[in-house]
């Protein structure tokens, strides 16, 4: 006589097989119904009840029933699970298996049906956690789809229905229009139209069920919908109830992966597992955050706006929390002991006395912040941010002087050789008269020169060394490195910075990238921030004009008048590698064209594919005034100083980010002459025009960066990605200041009590942090 557990096992096995085979009722010959009538199911009347009529159910219904039945056949009663706050009828939830979802729980733990797993991994998702943290890009309110008769002309609307007919037409060559008539559940008809998207056609079988979003055009009583978003529903059951009649999330996807499928996938994962929560309850309470299950449910399947809002708030908070944790943990060294300098006011005065100018108020303030750090025994980790030409380099030179006065060595690291050479010349000018010995170490030196320089550094016979990555790559051993200045931080990885930190000098980072304060706090969570928000007196702002490319000749006519006055010009175009695919004007082509248009001018070319030495040589010749126009790709973006250049033309300006345009423009207006920048824009939208107008109207990098961020709608993550913060999917740096600060406080609080997150209670937090870091690394690679 078999025992009850044995019987349970026996019944469970075919049911599990049925799940594995995708609920197609093929696991048991004759169908599952037959099995249930048999003696095996006899002792389990509840299971029989749940699976009643199985053979006639749709696949999603079968899935739901089977999961419930399997839940009943567990060895031990399921562990208590947190019941999601969502109403039962809201989402057809299946009985959770009671297992807590771990960051590493593989997608393959659930059965995704034919090809399903591949679809998910194809979207870069590896684990169930990844799937659930793959939030919808936007949400659509489909609670009550409007009656077509009620939709106003020009309004955006979502309708759902079945295709009753379709036609294709081509009113003129190169234009393809696809029309389909959609009939809604209430029998209304609307004509849906796709322009130039022939690939859509294969999805438009007659009888296919669609959800369409687009703009409505009325013609008397009939209506036409210009389709912007289309969803194909696989059939009845769970799918369509996740996609209609509610607030629906719309995911980033790709060809062959339907919205319906992604919703079902998220819903399945949510219903099978207990979400747990990596954030202990008392901190959630303290920060007024909902629990993770409610948040994930709410971001994927909100039952109302309030639910979505609290989900968004929690998940957004988490993004910043983990970002801050990561920063603080990485910056761990930064709170360690560093150098202690005397950094006297007297030394600063001596430095300033040797300058041909007086420091601005902003420079003076920042210099005092730096000197305070240098005097403290804590290791300095400070970011000096200031617009191009605001005088950061002069400030850095003074800090280096303070270090040298105390008998330490200083390093100044630049992202390119051109810049390193330029800094070297500047440092010579600032420091050599004060008796400071300045050296240069770059990759272009001969092996013999390098060896000599390294020996000199090691022997302490040189005080300040200017260089590129070579300074950290080539095993430089310092006699006594006290201060390291890093120019244009964003070109260096955090790892590189830490490498440089190994000898634990004080560290000063300079950046001209105008980052709004709210963003800087997060992007550089491990650095204290000093801002030089004032330009030296006497600078006239660069006069900027936006031109349509059809008026390009005007721009070059103006360039010619400047050249006749003895000035020089930069002409910038996009990267050569991309020019082919993006149909941008290649720099070479442009240079050739200009030689024809402006036969009087001497023109030369600089691009990223040239060897460093070649670039340097061209820059030197341009600086020496040996030719008039430098046509270049964006390699000149950072730092190059040619005071005589008074005009810059930027071709295809619409292709550049505002901050990049601003950086580029900073290359002119560095001398005393009035300077100009002409933005030549090709085909572009109203929105782009609005963005470019910002550059035309302002020369303040911070104002530009804020405006740029504000112009991007929420969910447009291009901006944050550009700023090198791939951690943020929901975060909107401009509006999130309060959340950022709260998350930062909590991160600090957590680490103050447990600096390496080793308490068992925080193991979930640690694992989630790891998972997020891995994802960031992964996304940086792709
Ligand atoms: P940044 O590094 O921020 O681009 P620099 O330190 O290179 O700025 O300064 C840009 C130019 O302005 C340099 O030619 C420098 O000599 C000059 N400069 C710096 N500070 C002042 C100041 N307080 N008054 C006048 N000119 C200054
Ligand atoms: Mg500079």
UniProtKB/TrEMBL annotation:
Query: What EC numbers are recorded for this enzyme?
Result: 5.6.2.4
Identify the keywords attached in UniProt to this record, alphabetized.
ATP-binding, DNA damage, DNA recombination, DNA repair, DNA-binding, Helicase, Hydrolase, Isomerase, Nucleotide-binding
Gene3D superfamilies associated with the record: Nucleic acid-binding proteins, P-loop containing nucleotide triphosphate hydrolases
Mind telling me which PROSITE patterns this protein's record contains?
HELICASE_ATP_BIND_1, HELICASE_CTER
Q: Which GO terms describe its molecular function?
A: DNA helicase activity; hydrolase activity
Instruction: Output the Pfam families linked to this UniProt entry.
Output: DEAD (PF00270), Helicase_C (PF00271), RecG_dom3_C (PF19833), RecG_wedge (PF17191)
Catalytically driven reaction(s): ATP + H2O = ADP + phosphate + H(+); Couples ATP hydrolysis with the unwinding of duplex DNA by translocating in the 3'-5' direction
Assigned protein family:
Belongs to the helicase family. RecG subfamily.
General function of this protein: Plays a critical role in recombination and DNA repair. Helps process Holliday junction intermediates to mature products by catalyzing branch migration. Has replication fork regression activity, unwinds stalled or blocked replication forks to make a HJ that can be resolved. Has a DNA unwinding activity characteristic of a DNA helicase with 3'-5' polarity.
Q: What is this protein called?
A: ATP-dependent DNA helicase RecG
Biological source species = Deinococcus rubellus
The gene designation is recG
């Amino acid at each position: 006589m078999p025992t009850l557990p044995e019987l349970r096992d026996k019944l469970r096995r075919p049911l599990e097989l049925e799940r594995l085979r995708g609920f197609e009722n093929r696991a048991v010959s004759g169908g599952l119904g037959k099995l249930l009538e048999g003696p095996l199911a006899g002792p389990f009347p509840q299971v029989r009840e749940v699976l009643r009529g199985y053979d006639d159910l749709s696949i999603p219904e079968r899935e739901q029933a089977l999961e419930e039945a399997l839940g009943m056949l567990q060895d031990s009663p399921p562990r208590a699970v947190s019941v999601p706050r969502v109403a039962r009828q809201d989402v057809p939830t299946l009985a959770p298996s009671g297992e807590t979802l771990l960051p590493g729980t593989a997608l393959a733990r659930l059965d995704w049906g034919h090809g399903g797993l591949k679809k998910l991994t194809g979207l870069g998702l590896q684990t169930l956690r990844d799937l659930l943290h793959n939030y919808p890009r936007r949400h659509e309110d489909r609670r009550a789809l409007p009656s077509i008769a009620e939709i106003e002309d020009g309004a955006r609307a979502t309708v759902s229905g079945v295709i009753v007919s379709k036609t294709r037409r081509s009113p003129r060559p190169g234009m393809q229009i696809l029309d389909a008539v959609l009939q809604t559940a209430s029998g209304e008809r609307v004509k849906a139209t796709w322009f130039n998207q022939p690939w859509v056609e294969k999805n438009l079988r007659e009888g296919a069920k669609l959800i369409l979003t687009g703009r409505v055009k009325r013609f008397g009583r009939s209506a036409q919908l210009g389709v912007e978003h289309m969803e194909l529903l696989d059939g009845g059951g769970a799918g369509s109830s996740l996609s209609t009649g509610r607030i629906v999330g719309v995911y980033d996807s790709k060809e062959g992966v339907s919205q319906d499928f992604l919703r079902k996938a998220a819903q399945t994962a949510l219903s099978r597992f207990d979400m747990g929560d990596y954030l202990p309850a008392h901190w959630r309470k303290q920060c007024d955050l909902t629990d993770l299950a409610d948040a994930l449910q709410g971001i994927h399947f909100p039952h109302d706006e309030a639910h979505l809002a609290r989900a968004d708030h929690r998940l957004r908070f988490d993004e910043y929390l983990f970002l801050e944790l990561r920063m603080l943990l990485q910056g761990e060294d930064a709170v360690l002991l560093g150098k202690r300098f005397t950094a006297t006011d007297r030394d600063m005065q001596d430095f300033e006395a040797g300058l041909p100018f007086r420091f601005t108020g902003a420079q003076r303030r920042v210099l005092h912040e730096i000197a305070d750090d240098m005097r403290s025994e804590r290791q300095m980790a400070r970011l000096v941010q200031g617009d191009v030409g605001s005088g950061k380099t002069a400030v850095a030179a003074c800090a280096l002087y303070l270090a040298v006065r105390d008998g330490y060595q200083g390093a100044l690291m630049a992202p390119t050789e051109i810049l390193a050479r330029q800094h070297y010349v500047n440092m010579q000018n600032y420091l050599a008269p004060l008796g400071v010995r300045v050296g240069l170490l770059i990759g272009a030196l001969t092996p013999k020169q390098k060896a000599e320089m390294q020996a000199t550094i090691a022997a302490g016979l040189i005080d300040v060394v200017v260089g590129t990555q070579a300074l950290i790559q080539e095993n430089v051993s310092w006699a006594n490195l006290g201060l390291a200045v890093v120019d244009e931080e964003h070109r260096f990885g955090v790892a590189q910075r830490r490498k440089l930190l190994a000898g634990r000098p004080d560290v000063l980072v300079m950046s001209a990238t105008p980052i709004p304060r709210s963003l800087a706090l997060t992007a550089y969570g491990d650095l204290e921030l000093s801002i030089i928000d004032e330009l030296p007196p006497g600078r006239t702002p660069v006069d900027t004009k936006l031109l349509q490319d059809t008026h390009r000749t005007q721009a070059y006519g103006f360039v010619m008048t400047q050249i006749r006055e003895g000035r020089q010009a930069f002409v910038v175009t996009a990267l050569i590698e991309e020019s082919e695919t993006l149909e941008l004007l290649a720099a070479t082509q442009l240079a050739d064209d200009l030689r024809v248009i402006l036969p009087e001018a001497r023109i030369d070319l600089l691009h990223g594919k040239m060897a460093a030495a070649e670039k340097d040589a061209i820059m030197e010749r341009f600086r020496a005034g040996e030719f008039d126009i430098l046509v270049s790709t964006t390699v000149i973006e950072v730092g190059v100083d040619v005071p005589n250049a008074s005009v810059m033309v930027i071709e295809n300006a619409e292709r550049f980010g505002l901050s990049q345009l601003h950086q580029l423009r900073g290359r002119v207006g560095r001398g005393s002459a009035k300077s100009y920048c002409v933005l030549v824009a090709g085909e572009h939208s109203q929105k782009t025009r609005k963005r470019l107008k910002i550059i035309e109207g302002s020369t303040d990098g911070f104002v530009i960066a804020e405006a740029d961020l504000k112009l991007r709608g929420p969910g447009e993550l291009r901006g944050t990605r550009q700023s090198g913060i791939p951690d943020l999917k929901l975060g909107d740096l401009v509006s999130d200041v309060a959340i950022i600060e709260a998350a930062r406080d909590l991160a600090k609080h957590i680490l103050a009590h447990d600096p390496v997150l080793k308490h068992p209670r925080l193991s979930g937090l640690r694992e989630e942090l790891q998972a997020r870091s891995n994802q960031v690394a992964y996304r940086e690679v792709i």
